[in-house]
Amino acid sequence: MAYTISGNYLASCSCVLVCGCAMDAQPRDAQGDEQCRGTAVFHIADGHLGDVDLSGVDFAFYNYFPSHLTAGDWKLGLVVDSDAGEEQADAVERILTGREGGPFGELSQFFGEYLGMRRAQISLTDGDKPALEIEGLSEIRYEPLTGPDGNPTTVKNAQFGFAPEFEIGRTEGHSDAFDLGFGPEYGERGEYTFSTEQTEGQPSGRI
């Protein structure tokens, strides 16, 4: 079934700056452990799966990468905003777990364990003070890294990325869900489009 979802996202993980997952490098957290634990919130500004309208739906996923991304054996948990309908939540789950193909279908070869879907209130704040909140699970604030000209630092044309170009920064707060708790360190944000109609060679979504 065809789908397209697009909007903006904010992600955070345990890796010290800069997270190497986008380049398929070995992750490393502040304690020297070579693993990546993280979460990301996505706002769907416009989207659908078949006839199911997904516009306005927010969702989050939690990840555990035990090594560099192409080593596989990922653990993933999904949270869909409690304001979304059951049909919408089911559609998001089908997309994110790769069952509907597209970029997540390509990534599903690396999945090791799916930890299931939960429902909770989700908030994504953009603008001057970016932040995400997943009720009872995560509260994370983001501050961009900036270059000599004062503009945000970006990563472009990475091997794995939610977007062809995304902004990177620092995060702080707390996160604990699906037994994948972590202390936020690295962060990124950008605008994304995931679709079954993406052309060959177009960057796929990184989970």
Q: How many β-strand runs?
A: 12
- Protein structure class: mainly beta
- Shape descriptor reads globular
Integer count of domains: 1
C-alpha Rg (nearest Å):
16 Å
Helix content: under 10%
Main beta sheet:
12 strands, mixed
Average pLDDT level:
94
Number of helices: 2
Stretches where pLDDT falls below 50 for ≥5 residues? 199-207
Percent of residues in β-strands: 35-45%
Along the chain, the helix and strand elements come as EEEEEHHEEEEEEE
End-to-end Cα distance = 21 Å
Assembly level = single chain
Written description of the protein model:
The structure is a single chain. With 207 residues, the chain is mainly β. It has helices at 86-96, 102-107, and strands at residues 3-13, 36-49, 52-53, 58-65, 74-81, 111-120, 122-125, 131-134, 138-144, 154-156, 165-175, 186-195. The protein has one domain (3-195). Strands 1, 2, 3, 4, 5, 6, 7, 8, 9, 10, 11 and 12 form a 12-stranded mixed beta sheet that branches. A hairpin with a 5-residue loop joins strand 7 and strand 8.
Could you list some keywords that capture this structure?
207 residues, globular, twelve-stranded mixed beta sheet
